[in-house]
Every structure is written in structure tokens, then in C-alpha cells.
Design goal:
The protein has five helices and 25 strands. With about 400 residues, the protein is an alpha+beta fold. The protein has three domains: about 110 residues, Lipocalin (Beta Barrel), CATH 2.40.128; about 90 residues, Lipocalin, CATH 2.40.128.20; about 160 residues, Glutaredoxin (3-Layer(aba) Sandwich), CATH 3.40.30. The longest helix is centred in the N-terminal third of the chain and has 19 residues. The chain starts with a helix and ends with a helix.
């Protein structure tokens, strides 16, 4: 009798422990969906490689996520570099929850289930949109909208590409042509974008959704010759200025300026950026590698970070995360926290006509004179433009180093 009672007790505790063990992610391919306005879904594809790692896929981009934790029936997925995280209930391979960005007080409904198709195509594509498209976002706004350039490649129904603007690009867009309907989306860990549009041979009438907080119309026309304004002409020093000056703290509490001995007789690149900005992340990855290859030649880089994190501590936490994930070995100073307002950034750098874009890159020669200012960044998603930018940067920096 004692033996039977003992077996029952053991089985009871085994079953209790089994039932309280949290469910974990199962390896496989899944479709995640964010809910936005007008009943629209913003889809993306991710592959679970283990119960603590997954890979987000946008066209040729791969975002490796290695910080996944479980508590009770919930899973918490921390996006690398960026502040946002997914908190979701997990049951039978299905997640339901939210993408949360604490500093912005934003929450976007999220769910996922096993699926390998971003957009399911119902009809054969009626048009091929490969090529360049002159684009205006917000064409009916008071200022007649902002210009952009669509760059697309289509193979059958599958479409990839991006929109370039004067301040950067929309990174890796992935989607389809379904009949005459264009559908493109991306989730890069920070931005949640959806572009939909009605297409004809030479025009697109569409809508752009950013998360569940922004919606804007756009129009586009085929124009292989269209170009945006020269990114080296948009930001410049006000008359009477030859250089810039600033003093901001680093993560160790040291106040640093261009008067520091490490910058004396060096070519210096000053990067205006924010850890929340995907274009800044792209530029930071490039600059981190470029710095390692050229610092022995007399090159220095210093970044000025404008953060919307509400506290100094949170802002420096975001900066440390960026440096760890990109291998940045140059100083990243906290220029501002609590807001990423460009108006406030203008006040911090009053010698510039304006801070038009995060990122902005300022080239300073060995004598401390500003020689060029590049607004925005053409990232890897822009293809030839990215290659052109990196080549131009290397050529100009080499020229300055040889002076």
C-alpha cells in the first residue's frame, strides 16, 4: 500500500512539473504580422533556429536575434541594438502579443504562426515594376510632399527594393505584385513598414504605413533619369564658420570635444546619429569596420548620439548595446536624451544651417576645417548607391589623409 501511495505522489509531482514547464519556440519558419490602420497587416518572415535564437528575413537582409527569454506562458524577444522587444503569449507554436518600444510609449499588436510566405499571391502580376520611380510622399500636404526615388527589382511576382530619400532609405523592402496590387513590407527590428499601391504601366498610387501610428499617401512615376538632390549640398556651415565645436559626455562620464589631444593633426569624421535609427545602424556598421582599417593612418571618428530614451542611464545603455553589436571602437558621445528632435539638435550644433537627417557625416581635415558634410546614408538596400557612397568616402578620406 505504501508503495502505491509513493508512486501516486511521484506521478503527481512529475505531472505538475511537466504542466508548469513553459512552452518554447520550435525550430521552423514563421510569419509574423503587425496590426496597423485600415485593417492592414504588416507581415515579415522569421526562422527559429533554436529556442533562444531566430533570424528575421527581409529580402537579402538577415537580422540575428539571440536574446529570447521565457516566463510562464510568455516569450520575450529582445531585438538586437534597438530598444524594442516583443512580448507575447505562446501556445501551440502561435504567438500573440505586442512589439513594445518603452521610450516612445508605443505598442503594436503582433501575432505569428508557422508559414513561409510573406504575401500570398492570388493573381498573376499584371506589371513588372523593375527600375526607377520618381516618388512623392504626402502629395496633398501643404508643402506638396517630400521627394523620394523608388528602386525595385521584380522576378515573377516577387518584388524587392527600397525608397531612397534625401535623409536615407527605407531599407530592405520585400513583397509581391499581386495582379495590379503592389505589396511591400519590412521589419528591421525598429521600423515596421508597409507599402501598398495600385499599379499601371507608368504610375503607382499607394499608401505607406509605419507601425500603427503613421499613414501617408504616395504617388510614383517611372523615370529612369530621376535623381535626388546631391547629399553633399543639403547641410552646410553658416557664413563665418570654418569648423564645428561641441562638448558632450561619453559612457564613462568623460567630457570630450574636438580639442582633445587624440584628434590633433588627425582627419576626423563626426557622425550625427541615434541608436534608434536603422540608417544610422547601417552607417555605424560601415564606419566601425572602416575605422579599424584606417585608424593607424591618422583617421579618427567620433559619434554624437541624439536619443529619445527618457533618462541618461537608458540612453547610455542603448549606446553600449549599439557599440557591442557593431564593434564600434570610436567614442560615442551622448549629445541629447529625452528627445530626438532635430530642432533641439540644431541648438546643440548652431554653426550648421540645420540638422536635416540622422545620420549626417561631417568631414574635418587635419587643421580642423570642415571640408564636406554628407546628409543621410544610402545603405546596403540601395545597391549601387551604397557602393558609390562607400567608394566616395574612401577616396575623399584618403585625399585628406595625404594632405
Amino acid at each position: 500500500m505504501r508503495y502505491i501511495v509513493l508512486v501516486i505522489i511521484v506521478l503527481f509531482f512529475v505531472n505538475c512539473n511537466k504542466n508548469t514547464e513553459p512552452e518554447t519556440l520550435i525550430q521552423g519558419t514563421y510569419k509574423g504580422v503587425f496590426k496597423t490602420q485600415d485593417g492592414q497587416d504588416i507581415p515579415f518572415i522569421f526562422e527559429v533556429t533554436s529556442d533562444t535564437s531566430l533570424t528575421i528575413k527581409n529580402a537579402s537582409e538577415r537580422v540575428e536575434v539571440n536574446d529570447i527569454q521565457y516566463k510562464n506562458d510568455s516569450v520575450f524577444i529582445q531585438i538586437p541594438v534597438f530598444e524594442g522587444f516583443i512580448s507575447a503569449k505562446l501556445e501551440n507554436k502561435i504567438m500573440k502579443g505586442n512589439l513594445i518600444t518603452p521610450s516612445l510609449k508605443r505598442s503594436i499588436p503582433f501575432e505569428s504562426e508557422p508559414d513561409s510566405v510573406r504575401f500570398h499571391v492570388v493573381e498573376s502580376p499584371e506589371f513588372d515594376i523593375s527600375g526607377n520611380w520618381e516618388t512623392v510622399f504626402g502629395p496633398r500636404s501643404e508643402d506638396n510632399g517630400s521627394n523620394a526615388k523608388g528602386i525595385f527589382t521584380q522576378n515573377g511576382a516577387k518584388v524587392s527594393g527600397t525608397f531612397r530619400t534625401t535623409t536615407g532609405d527605407y531599407r530592405f523592402l520585400d513583397g509581391v505584385m499581386d495582379g495590379n496590387q503592389l505589396k511591400l513590407s519590412t521589419f528591421d527590428g525598429s521600423h515596421v513598414f508597409l507599402f501598398t499601391g495600385n499599379v499601371t504601366n507608368d504610375s503607382i498610387q499607394g499608401t505607406f504605413y509605419s507601425g500603427n501610428h503613421w499613414k501617408e499617401d504616395f504617388v510614383a512615376w517611372r523615370n529612369e533619369d530621376f535623381e535626388l538632390p546631391d547629399a553633399d549640398s543639403l547641410t552646410f556651415l553658416k557664413p563665418g564658420n570654418k569648423t564645428i565645436s561641441f562638448t558632450f559626455p561619453d559612457g564613462e562620464g568623460n567630457e570630450l570635444s574636438l580639442d582633445d589631444p587624440r584628434f590633433k593633426d588627425k582627419v576626423v569624421l563626426v557622425q550625427i546619429m541615434g541608436t534608434w535609427c536603422p540608417n544610422c545602424l547601417d552607417e555605424s556598421r560601415f564606419l566601425a569596420k572602416y575605422y579599424q582599417e584606417n585608424k593607424s593612418k591618422g583617421l579618427e571618428i567620433i559619434a554624437l548620439s541624439f536619443e529619445y530614451a527618457k533618462t541618461e542611464e537608458a540612453a547610455f545603455t542603448n549606446i553600449r548595446r549599439l557599440k557591442e553589436n557593431t564593434g564600434i571602437d570610436y567614442p560615442v558621445l551622448l549629445a541629447q536624451y529625452g528627445s530626438s528632435s532635430k530642432n533641439e539638435a540644431n541648438a546643440k550644433l548652431p554653426m550648421l544651417n540645420h540638422v536635416l537627417s540622422y545620420p549626417t557625416l561631417i568631414y574635418i581635415d587635419k587643421t580642423g576645417v570642415v571640408r564636406k558634410i554628407h546628409t543621410g546614408f544610402n545603405g546596403p538596400a540601395t545597391g549601387e548607391k551604397y557602393a558609390e557612397f562607400t567608394s566616395d568616402l574612401d577616396n575623399f578620406v584618403t585625399e585628406l589623409l595625404n594632405e
